[in-house]
Design brief:
The chain has one domain: Kinesin motor domain (Kinesin). The chain is built from 8 helices and 15 strands. The strands form 3 sheets. Strands 1, 5, 6, 7, 8, 11, 12, 13, 14 and 15 form a 10-stranded mixed β-sheet that branches. Strands 2-3-4 form a 3-stranded antiparallel β-sheet, covered by helices on one side. Strands 9-10 form a two-stranded antiparallel ribbon. The protein is α/β, with parallel strands linked by helices. The N terminus is likely disordered. Bound molecules: adenosine-5'-triphosphate and magnesium ion. The site of magnesium ion (MG) has 5 residues, from helix 3. Keywords: ATP-binding, Microtubule, Motor protein, Nucleotide-binding. Pfam families: Kinesin. InterPro entries: Kinesin-like_fam, Kinesin_motor_CS, Kinesin_motor_dom, Kinesin_motor_dom_sf, P-loop_NTPase.
Length: 368
């Protein structure tokens, strides 16, 4: 209900804990972050005290609010609880997109992929498990589902197949949209039939190992590329004659930090990477903003999907009739305060967007 009123884009904010390796006796290590809203958990306040040249202390405070703010001690299960409804709506025929946005080291991969224990399992495996469970439950109502998955990496505006068998970086992959069915395909990539959550886990591990191999060729490449896991689900109901076609896209975005921080200054490859990341992240922001204007009644508004591979790939899942969630990941460190503020401003722009009402993609078997 709330989702309908607000439109179909939501933003969560998650602050990661200080890591054991970061703990020190320096009490200025932590940024001053408060969570004043104990009831709805929607607010976050950052502050910083500084002294000017005259020795006069000044305190700056920045307040933001989102659909949900998760404090450092929140668990993967708690975050997933808020995402599960959205994830499972792909079984009803919705196109769903979940993005993790934030600077390097802010917890995007931890949130999306997570660790190897049950407690640390991330959103991707949890969502997959949920979809399988719902599909199983709907069998009793006559639904039969078929699922397939792919996992891609977008690095320097080039697509790589993380589930492919061939050599990395060698094949050229093009994005194709079928206007009639609203389906997006990428040429020459592995699309794997999905039949159990455990099989999906091994696929994810395989994708991870391919990424790691590529990463040794190019230092820390994984955090400099976007990864997009797509689950497509087709359902047919023999009892009612209905069918549906939905998708779930789970995206671990490249680090959002600005040029100066990444030390890209004199390194040409690093510079190019950073420019490509900035370009695609701002393209994402622009697409969402354009959808917002369109939602406000500017029906013929042009949506600039083609400005980046990321937005072009997700075109059909990033439109007025899909469901989108952005999880903004933040570092708790004082040294990252400025970067956190940039992220919070980007997310606020996204959060203030209303992009129409999500539509299911289902139809009766005999209607055209
Ligand atoms: N909520 C959390 N609880 C415990 N540890 C966390 C949490 N979030 C992140 N971490 C840890 O913090 C470190 C950095 O997190 P992670 O690798 O997820 O960052 P990232 O945003 O994916 O960075 P990059 O852009 O470089 O890929 C990792 O060691 C991760 O295990
Ligand atoms: Mg990562």
């Amino acid at each position: 209900m709330v989702q309908e009123l607000k439109g179909n884009i939501r933003v969560f904010c998650r602050v990661r804990p200080v890591l054991p390796s970061e703990v020190s006796s320096d009490e200025n290590l932590w940024a001053e972050i408060e969570y004043p809203d104990n009831l709805d958990h929607k607010e976050i306040v950052l502050s910083s005290a500084s002294e000017n040249a005259m020795g006069i202390e000044r305190k700056d405070e920045w307040q933001f609010s989102f659909d949900r703010v998760f404090e450092p001690n929140s668990t993967q299960a708690e975050v997933f609880e808020e995402i599960s409804q959205l994830a499972q709506s792909c079984t009803d025929g919705y196109n769903v997109c979940v993005f993790a946005y934030g600077q390097t080291g802010s917890g995007k991969s931890f949130t999306m992929e997570g660790g190897s224990t049950e407690v640390t399992t991330g959103m991707i495996p949890r969502a997959v498990e949920q979809v399988f469970q719902v599909a199983e439950e709907l069998k009793s109502k006559g639904w039969e589902y078929r699922m397939e998955g792919q996992m891609l990496e977008i690095y320097n505006e080039t697509i790589n197949d993380l589930l492919g068998k061939g050599e990395f970086d060698k094949k050229k992959h093009d994005i194709k949209h079928d206007l009639k069915t609203g389906r997006t395909t990428v040429t020459d990539v592995a699309v794997v039939p999905l039949n159990s959550p455990s099989q999906v886990r091994s696929l994810l591990a395989f994708a991870q190992s391919r990424r790691t191999v590529a990463a040794t060729l190019m230092n820390e490449r994984s955090s400099r590329s976007h990864s997009v896991f797509t689950l497509r689900i087709y359902g047919e109901n023999k009892l009612t004659g209905e069918s549906c076609d939905g998708s779930l896209n789970l995206v671990d975005l490249a680090g959002s930090e600005r040029l100066e921080k990444s030390g890209a200054g004199n390194d040409k490859d690093r510079l190019r990477e950073t420019q490509n990341i900035n370009k695609s992240l701002s393209a994402l922001g622009d697409v969402i903003a354009a959808l917002g204007e369109k939602g406000e009644g500017k029906g013929d508004k042009h949506i600039p999907y083609r400005n980046s591979k990321l937005t072009y790939l997700l075109q059909n899942s990033l439109s007025g009739n899909s469901k989108t969630l952005m999880v903004l990941n933040l570092s708790p460190l004082a040294s990252h305060l400025n970067e956190s503020l940039c992220s919070l401003r980007f997310a606020t722009k996204v959060n203030n967007t209303t992009i129409g009402t999500a539509k299911k993609q289902n139809r009766l078997a005999n209607s055209s």
